[in-house]
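Same chain as my last thread, 250 residues:
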Amino acid sequence: MEMLKVQNITKSFGGIKAVNNLSFVVDQNTITGLIGPNGAGKTVTFDILTGFTKPDSGKVFFKNQEITNKQPFEIARMGIARSFQLIKLFPQMKVMDVLLFAAQNKLLRHEFRLSLKSNNRYSAIEDVIADLNIANLRDKICSELSYGEQKLVEIASLLVMEPAPEILLFDEPTSGLSEPEIRNIISIFQKLRERNLTFLIIEHNMSFIMNICDKIIVLNYGSKIAEGKPQEVKQKKEVVEAYLGESESA
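reply #2:
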């Protein structure tokens, strides 16, 4: 099943095409990597998919329903969750309170209440805490966490969202992490793929991408230059040139 379909989207800023006639499909229960050099248009693509930026042309579909002109909160309610390059946690809140906030049902029109008794997602939160092995963080203040710990809490906050997300978009989940932390993130994503979820991931760490992705889409200057299985994509000349430059790849 096609979980997410991008059809000929284009977005320009001041005459520069950040995304140029881009099309691709993310199938259900797969992990798809979206890679490319800095400035290739990856985050702008995420912004279009999640309603933060409107394309100049083209369409986006989620489970065959067009979402091109929907607002970010409407898209989130449909089951699309995303992270950002900069971690967005409440710095003065405890980790458990952040997860309770994230788990509030976004379809209910009431003020958010940070109460265990009023939150029927508590068991789901406990499951995610166990899966990510972050029980030791539950009572810590977010500002006191290491960068790697904040990344784990961010992942947890997406997994506990209500309505539960069906596809998760991660923007550079391993950036700024040490090798042991990256290995931990890889094991987490390998475990999460058993949860019947779908992932679209922007990442520069090729070891991470090659280890977990079923398919990779490569962008350069806003255009798709390659698409396919990891082993196929990394051997394409245009992909090597985009990352290393033509003279170096030669």
